[in-house]
C-alpha cells in the first residue's frame, strides 16, 4: 500500500474519530431514544448539508463504521433542526441569528474534538476566531432583545401613567361599555325569543287550518249524492 493511500486512510479515520468524540453521546442514552424515521433522517442530513457540510460528510462515513453513533448523530441533528424551525415560525427575526450561532457552535465542537486526536495547534487558532465571532453575534442578538424590552417597558410605563392619570374616566368608559354590551345581549335574546314565539304561533295556526280543512272535506263527503243514495239503500 502506497504512503499516499495510507495517509488518506489515516486522515479519514481521524476525521471519523473526531466526529465520535464530537458527538459525546453514550450508547445508553441512545437506547432511550426512539428510532427515527426515514423522513427524519433525510431532514437531519439535509440540515447538516446546508449548514455544516463537513459534519454532513463525516456523518455519512460514520453510518458504515458505527451505526449506533450514526443514529445518535441523526437524532441530535433532527432535534436541532426542529428547534431552529420553531424560531423560524414563531420568532422569524431571531432565526438567522440562531442558525449562525448553531453553525459556529457546531464547528467549534468539531474542532475541539479534532484537537483531541492530535491536531491541537492547527485547530486552536480556528477555534479562537470562531469564539470571537460567536461573541459578536451573541452581543448583537442581546442588543436587539434589549431594545425590544426597552420598547415594551416604555409601553408599560405609558399604560401605568394612563391608569393613574385618567383612572376615573377609564372606569366610566369601561362601565358604559359593559352596560351597552349587556343591553345588546338582552335585546338580541328578546328578538330571538320573539321570533321563536311567532314561529310557534304560525305553526299552531297552520295545524288548526289543516284540521278545519280536513273536517270540511269530511262533511262534504257525507253530504254528497253518492253517500245519500247509499244510505237509502
TrEMBL record:
Record keyword Coiled coil present: yes
Signal peptide interval: 1-29
Coiled-coil intervals: 120-173
Protein name: LTXXQ motif protein
Biased composition (Basic and acidic residues): 207-221
Keywords: Coiled coil, Signal
Biased composition range(s): Polar residues: 222-233
UniProt region (Disordered), positions on chain: 183-233
Organism whose genome encodes this protein: Thalassoglobus neptunius
Key word Membrane present: no
